Amino acid sequence: MAMAMKNNQLYVLFLLGNAFVFSVSGARDESSVSAVGDPGMQRDGLRVAFEAWNFCNEVGQEAPDMGSPRAADCFDFSKPLTHKVKEVDNRLGVGKPFPGLKPSDVNNTDLYAVQKELYLGSLCKVSDTPRPWQFWMIMLKNGNYDTKSGLCPENGKKGTPFSPGRFPCFGEGCMNQPKLYHQPTELDGNTMRGSFSGTYELGSDVGDGLDDISYFEVVWEKKVNVGSWVFSHKLKTSKKYPWLMLYLRADATQGFSGGYHYDTRGILKILPESPNFKVRVSLDIKQGGGPKSQFYLLDIGSCWKNNGAPCDGDVLTDVTRYSEMIINTETPAWCSPNGLDNCPPYHITPDNRKIYRNDTDNFPYSAYHYYCAPGNAQHLEQPVSTCDPYSNPQAQEIVQLLPHPIWAEYGYPTKKGDGWVRDARTWELDVGGLSSRLYFYQDPGSPSARRIWTSIDMGTEIFVSNKDEVAEWTLSNFDVILTKPNS
């Protein structure tokens, strides 16, 4: 999803950060309200969807006999469960019409997937106030990039082929979509359970074992009328696919979700805006995924132009903005007194004081893994690293954080190991408060952008592992809480 490059070496950044050891027994503010359609994942009638992407945040080419890489498992609770999406819907692929599909998109692999997501959303839609919602989104992404193809745009402009070496690719076909298997949710006694799983090795059979092949799996399970859905994730890399990403996302129910330039569907019926929201979630990491696993306790994504205006779909001027915290204890701080280009120009304290990165006595270098600026910005402060220009449809800006005492006021991890393997916790994070004080680039003299977040997600990005790595984690009780009514 989000990746960054410096001095011809690819550095990754992306999703999810922040945590706070918080007992969730405290009462909410009376004015608070959940921004998601399924607060805390408590609803028995689940709505969940699946999307897979290549390096460019596009489809490129469908996997044989798999259809377009979009699917959904949506049902109302009854005995038996009343499913809203048929498997024939999940297997729809280019050339096959469905209601609402534009004739011009029926044979365009990328646009077909866009329209299929909207169609699945219409089947899963739940009426609500102030607007309907559709589903939680499971996102899978392949980090391979065939640089000889010229397929990915460069900061929104048409890309051109270049020599391989900066990105993994085993050769022609390395950007393929995965085989996808769906176990529709079933009710067994008092327990509901379903899953999506698969592999990128198209000639393999996961039934023969997982040695030397990639694998992904998300299983959801819940007891009727009891607690939260528990989403169990597993992600495995392989020699051919050393860079994979798997996240559970709360996306906007309409408009552009983080990283995309077209209409999407999701579960955020109200878009949270800094500083007035928190995120509550329970996370239990079983396996971390190795030293290259950039596990995001929380990632937030949005889009606004460098002049502060909201995005409008113009990929030449739109900029995806991400903030994420990495909780892997093996992830170093690339930001340092000797690596100022990896740091934001300044840090803002909770009481709104600015500490500039050249203030070596006071700047919290170890609180930042990496910062990269948008490649289309015209007035960047030097020295600077610019983000990878190929992995989003438009330019991107990324602020990656690490556990540090300076984040304590926001409820985020304060030291290495907080929330990591064998340290399961329920967190309540003042994501709105922190995100209101992070540095994001804007053109000099331009009005401040409204920081409205269209995606909030959690998971890992295993970045070009040297050997097969496995990450496993469970997530539950996910909620986005507005601390003040939106005006």
TrEMBL record:
<keyword id="KW-0732">Signal</keyword>
<feature type="signal peptide">
    <location>
        <begin position="1"/>
        <end position="26"/>
    </location>
</feature>
<keyword id="KW-0418">Kinase</keyword>
<protein>
    <submittedName>
        <fullName>Serine/threonine protein kinase</fullName>
    </submittedName>
</protein>
<dbReference type="Pfam" id="PF24804">
    <property type="entry name" value="DUF7705"/>
</dbReference>
<dbReference type="GO" id="GO:0004674">
    <property type="term" value="F:protein serine/threonine kinase activity"/>
</dbReference>
<dbReference type="InterPro" id="IPR056122">
    <property type="entry name" value="DUF7705"/>
</dbReference>
<keyword id="KW-0723">Serine/threonine-protein kinase</keyword>
<keyword id="KW-0808">Transferase</keyword>
<feature type="domain" description="DUF7705">
    <location>
        <begin position="33"/>
        <end position="482"/>
    </location>
</feature>
